[in-house]
Amino acid sequence: MKIDEISRNLENIETWSLKDSRDRGCKRWSVYPPDVLDLTVAEMDLPIAEPILEVVTDAVRRQAFGYPIPDFKSGLPEIASNWLSGQNLKVKPSQIRMIADVIKAMVLALRHVGDTSGPVAVITPTYSRFLDAIEAAGRRPLEVPMRHSQGRYELDFDALDEALRKGATTVLLCNPSNPVGRKYSAAELETLSEAIDRYNVRLISDEIHAPLTYGGGFIPYASISRTAAQHSITLTSASKGWNIPGLRCALVILTGDGDAEMWDSLPRAAKGGISPLGIEATKAALEHGQPWLDSAMRLLDRNRNLIYEKFARAGHPEVLDLPESTYLAWLDLNSLSVTDPSKYLIEHAKVATTPGEEHGRAGTGFVRLNFASPTAIIEDATDRIVSHLGKNALA
Ligand SMILES: Cc1ncc(COP(=O)(O)O)c(C=O)c1O
Predict the structure, then answer these.
(1) pLDDT digits (tens, 9 = 90+) for 277-286
(2) CATH node for 57-288
(3) Distance from the CA of 322 to the CA of which of 7, 78, 259, 263 falls in 20 to 30 A?
(4) Which of 27, 40, 102 to mutate to test the pocket of ligand 1 (most atoms within 8 A of CB)?
(5) Ligand 1: does its nearest atom lie under 6 Å from the Cβ of 326?
(6) How does pLDDT run across 8-28, given as a tens digit for each residue?
(7) What is the pLDDT of residue 15?
(8) Does position 238 have pLDDT exceeding 80, yes or no?
(9) How far is it, in rounded angstroms, from Cα 59 to Cα 276?
(10) What angle in degrees, to the nearest 10, is found between the helix axes of 375-394 and 290-313?
């Protein structure tokens, strides 16, 4: 089946093959030898949504390869404002700016927003680039590990308070969390916002995984109160939900008074790199991408349950908490009793995962597994991992 036919026929979303993914020539499936299942970088083995393919193909035909149209002429802030209001986040188009990618925005915010003299409190385990972004901004990280209790991770407010007492002036939140898949509750976000307010610091909330929340219920940080909206900056993008990170377009949501003006005053050289194709693709995703996303979520839901049940049935329920969001499984492989579980799995199970330590010190003994692949691949990869857990348990 041709790629555009697969994309049109949502019921056949799983007819995508690994050959199709390899033919993309992107990072995933290009790094490891052919016998290794690559479940690392957050790209999905799924056809791109038809509305996105259509606008990008049209843009290619029109040779839309110039510089990007300015934010206020692009129509994207209006579409994004409408999309965000569906998540109960009320923002005016004039409070939304485009940028090439979320991490670039994070570095810029860490350099320029609020008091940047102190360290950055980063809730861990977290997406590895958060730690890179802190370094790129010339600031020092203070890791704030989450607490793990009764089969789920929770924000640890004592640990956060300690970091704030030590002088942290910015807090980094990944909501929902990559890698642990938590969508934080209103109560958690309210308590978090009280702490941020008490210490009069700023919070950056990366909400790039919000579209990938199972059963809905995602709560944007800035939506919980006027106070939270004032002290936070929200970063998001269609790049994870619709699998288009190579198209180079993300969004900065500036809900604090004066923040949009402050953002506009930052050096233009640090904000470049947005692609006209990315603007078109993001508009199509936010306006017309929900049916595709619903279909993709059904596959991801099946995969997350399959992995969860396989570990539980094998007598290892401790390995995975069922993710509430994202297509990432955060696997506790301490029972393997090896120093580097990721390396071990590549060598012995021919499964590539992302090493846990990249997500902060709290990640030691863990790996992150990307389950956005045909179910047969995920089943095979999980069986391989389970068989090694069994071996070590017997050893
Ligand atoms: C939480 C999170 N933020 C940011 C990114 C990267 O986004 P971008 O390519 O827009 O920098 C990722 C990619 O996986 C992610 O998981």
Answers:
(1) 999 999 999 9
(2) 3.40.640.10
(3) 7
(4) 102
(5) no
(6) 555 566 678 889 999 999 999
(7) 77
(8) yes
(9) 8
(10) 20
Task: Establish whether residue 174 lines the binding site of ligand 1, counting it when its CB lies within 6 angstroms of any ligand atom.
Answer: yes
Q: Quote the tokens at residue 271.
A: 């904000």
Over 277-304, what HEC string results?
HHHHHHHHHHHHCHHHHHHHHHHHHHHH
Q: Are 231 and 197 in contact (CB under 8 A)?
A: yes
Instruction: Report whether residue 250 contacts ligand 1, using a CB cutoff of 6 Å.
Output: yes
Is 40 near ligand 1, meaning CB less than 6 Å away?
A: no
Q: How many whole angstroms from 354 Cα to the centroid of ligand 1?
A: 14
Q: Which long-range contacts (CB under 8 A, 24 or more apart) does 26-31 make?
A: 26/246, 28/370, 31/352
CB 46 within 8 A of CB 244: no
Q: Which CATH number fits domain 3-47+290-394: 3.30.43.10, 3.90.1150.10, 3.30.930.10, 3.30.70.1530?
A: 3.90.1150.10
